Amino acid sequence: MEREKGINYMAIRRLSWSAMFIALSAVGAFIKIPSMIGSIALDSFPALLGAVFLGPVTGAVIGGAGHIISALAGGMPLGTFHFLIMLEMAVLAWGYGKLCLAGKRFGGALFFLAGNAVVAPLPFAVLISHEFYIAILPGILAATVINLALAYVLAPRLLPLFKKIFPNIRVSR
Q1: Which of 50, 55, 79, 99 makes an SS bond possible with 59, Cβ 3.0 to 4.6 Å?
Q2: 3-165 is classed in which CATH architecture?
Q3: 69 Cβ contact partners less than 8 Å away, ≥ 6 residues apart
Q4: What's the pLDDT score for residue 1?
């Protein structure tokens, strides 16, 4: 019954869950972390969950979409630089998902923490100023820790639900 008349119900289910994670990212985009730029928010933990449960590529799409929604909600304070951040978020969510699915959950967490809190903002030290980079680090670090903690705690608890929805899912604890 999984394929009836050319309809792939598993693909529809995956697309529906992807849309729900993007919607959760949009909700998180409105939960801002106080900082000098208004686009630092709780928008990336749904991407991290999506990368673990739906795959790294899907997580990357959710991460990129989540950041753009967050930037729009914050008034796009960095203008077109947000597209660079969108790509960075996609790469970080993809890497987190790849490492988690390879059984390196803690390594994935460290990858995301270092990548999002320190490496991803580095281009702004050159493009804007070193002072700007230093000024945004506390807010980005706080948001990264909160997003990562939510994903790290929720993933094992949501795993039984996702195993029922996607019987062939492979996720390491």
Answers
A1: 50
A2: Orthogonal Bundle (1.10)
A3: 22, 25, 26, 29, 43
A4: 47
